[in-house]
Amino acid sequence: MPYDLIIQNGLIYDGDGGVPYAANIGIKDGTIAEIGACDGETTETIDASGAIVTPGFIDLHTHYDGQVSWDEKFEPSVYHGVTTVVMGSCGVGFAPVHPQDHDKLVRLMEGVEDIPGTALSEGLTWNWTTFEDYMDAIDFPHTIDFAAQVVHDPLRVFVMGDRAVFNEPATKDDIEQMRKLTRSALEAGAVGFSTGRSDVHRSADGEWTPSSEATSSELSGIAAALKGLDHGILQAVNDFDLERGDPEAFDREWKLLEEFAASAEGRPFSLSLMQRDFAPKQWREILSRSEDAKARGLNVSLQVAPRGIGVILGLQCTFHPFIGFPSYKKISRLSLSERVAAMRDPAFKAQLLSEGSEKLAGDGTPIPPIADMLLAQIDFISCKMFRLGENPDYEQSLEQSVYKAAEADGVKPLEKIYDILLENDGEEFLYFPIYNYTDLNYDAVFEMMSHPQSLMGLSDGGAHVGTICDASFPSYLLYYWARDRNKGSTISLPEAVKKLTSEIADFAGFKDRGRLKVGLKANINVIDHANLRIKPPRMVKDLPAGGQRLLQNAEGYIATLVDGVPVIKNDALTGALPGRLVRVGAAAN
User: Fold this and answer.
1) Closest by CA position to 386, among listed 308, 276, 324
2) Are strands 572-573 and 233-238 parallel, antiparallel or unpaired?
3) Quick one: pLDDT at residue 279?
């Protein structure tokens, strides 16, 4: 048999978690045609000697909903072995939409996911109204494949108009219309439906998101759109009203989520799970409730992350500790070099450090409410604030923290932060894990990842572009948990590959990918696992309207193939664009 491409001499990790084996892979017409000797002629070969060969990774939780309409590259996910992303997480997105509501959705995405509103306003093509229109509009060549979820916020605004923004209860007719629109999108190939109920999710104007106050009857009514389908997933993020301090909120919100999941009659449901500093034991309660729900027949999974979920702090970033100080506000619109020059003036430094931060949340700046809490506890949080280094270290101890560095220099933590951020001409970053690092170790992370109901997710690829850079999660899981970690429990390489591939494919209903099997789609990675690493985050200005974002590259990807075509070779983009919209169910392409 003649092949288009043969991957030779690699060690196959097929995605099912079994023992790896040596074999060649022959690819024809975008499909895995043979795994074995592959003796036929071929147009192209990739030498995988000394490398591992895996299915392409699937990222279940991203926010490329806007970027996908103007940017075909899917950076930074494409640099980390990801060949399929699922967009439309947390209930925010851009379809369906009436023309008069474009700005409402931009302000929501800007506030919730830290994507510059100016970039969205200039970049979004808006050549759609319905969700089906949206899927058609974005279905043009990209580097990797992508699937879309129907999202609650724009759906609510589309049906309810201003009543959705003012968080009015949906009427019976509203709910029925939302259900019908969701069903229509699912029948057109949408992968599922997502909603968001987090207190830290606000619009750029500081308002609650439309979906955050939806009633159980609304959520259950929409979820009923999945009844009778052989595909479709539900996804939610919920912090159980922690910010409001309501002692009965957890039970109320959990009941709502169970009713939401039950209304889909067996379709898979996932909930974001992380350890929160301000409720450090809540994750265990969620695990326990999820186990009970599973035992009662609900198809509940939990999206987890392989490291702390944290913010990157820097003078170039959306957030840093001085952003609310009066003296800094006076120079905030200057160029980076001009701000650095001003901040190096001893008199300016002394004045700023004598001040307090003014309240940020709700002042029109797209800063989450949690920022005010963090600024109020700056000495405490400096205990888990770190430099990442040239080979980013995300599991550091108290002794490596900014707090200890300040103590050694005989200065207060805030002054030490000030000095560090001025290093490298103001391009220095600090890392602060808000979630999953309460105890300054990965014990909770390992327990969450090892739970039988867990799914890898939460990378937020495409979102929080000025504060978070977690699209590198897949690479991190492979090299740190399955190779380098010496501070506790580890994960085997076959299990790590399984977590990034078949487990997510099975959950999402992707029947044509997630494993290295004859007849499946040739989305494949060839990885120099022994030398795999991720590079430090860097800030680039490549968004529309001059917007900037954090990117993070990797080393060790010999090749990443999508539909049998290399999109990455030796860690660099090839320029090929074989990726397309993935439709599931009867509309599968």
Assistant:
1) 308
2) unpaired
3) 83
Q: What single DSSP character describes residue 77?
A: G
Please return the burial class of 74, using the count of CB atoms within 10 Å of its CB with bins 0-12, 13-18 and 19+: buried
Instruction: Please report how the helices 249-262 and 216-223 are oriented relative to each other, as an axis angle in degrees rounded to 10.
Output: 20
pLDDT reading at 61 higher than 60: yes
**Do the strands 145-151 and 82-87 form a parallel or antiparallel pair, or are they unpaired?**
parallel
Using alpha carbons, select from 433, 475, 435, 461 the residue that is nearest to residue 312: 433
Determine the average pLDDT of the residues in 315-344: 94
* DSSP-assigned letters across all residues of 316-345: TSS--TTTTSHHHHHHTTS-HHHHHHHHTS
Q: What sign has the CA pseudo-torsion 359, 362, 363, 364? A: positive
What element of type H or E holds 151? strand 145-151
Instruction: Kindly compute the dihedral angle of the four CA atoms of residues 143, 571, 566, 34, in this order, to the nearest 10 degrees.
Output: -130
Alpha carbons 286 and 261: distance in angstroms, whole number:
15
pLDDT tens figures, 202-218: 555 567 678 888 999 99
Would you say residue 344 has pLDDT above 60? Answer: yes
Owner of token pair 């916020």: 153
Round to whole Å and give the CA distance between 374 and 369: 9
Q: Rg for the chain (alpha carbons), in Å?
A: 23
Distance CA 49, CA 26 (A): 15
The two tokens of residue 194 are: 């997502």
Distance of CA 211 to the CA centre of its chain: 19
Give percent of the chain with pLDDT exceeding 90.
Answer: 80
Domain 85-308+444-511 sits in CATH at 3.20.20.140
Residue intervals of the chain classified under CATH 3.20.20.140 are 85-308+444-511
Angle in degrees, CA 390, 395, 398, rounded to 5: 105
- Tokens of residue 568, six digits: 């990455």
Predicted confidence band of residue 430 (pLDDT cuts 50, 70, 90): very high
Q: Which of 577, 573, 585 is nearest to 230 (CA)?
A: 585
Indicate the Cα dihedral angle 139, 140, 143, 146, nearest 10°. 0
Written as six digits, the tokens of 43 are 């147009």
Count other Cβ atoms within 10 Å, centred on residue 397: 12
73, two tokens: 């590259």
pLDDT above 70 as % of the chain: 94
Mean pLDDT for all residues in the chain: 93
Q: How far apart are CA 22 and CA 31, in angstroms?
A: 19
The residue among 324, 395, 326 whose CA lies nearest residue 360 is 324
Please list the residues that pair with 252 across neighbouring strands: none
Of residues 145, 129, 270, 63, the one with CA closest to residue 137: 129
pLDDT tens per residue across span 127-165: 999 999 999 999 999 999 999 999 999 999 999 999 998
Global pTM value: 0.95
User: Residue 240's closest CA among 220, 223, 255?
Assistant: 255
Alpha-carbon span 214 to 224, nearest angstrom: 15
Q: Residue 140: what pLDDT?
A: 97
Q: Which of these, 318, 364, 387, lies nearest to 548 by C-alpha position?
A: 318
Distance CA 94, CA 117 (A): 13
**Which amino acid, residue 448?**
M
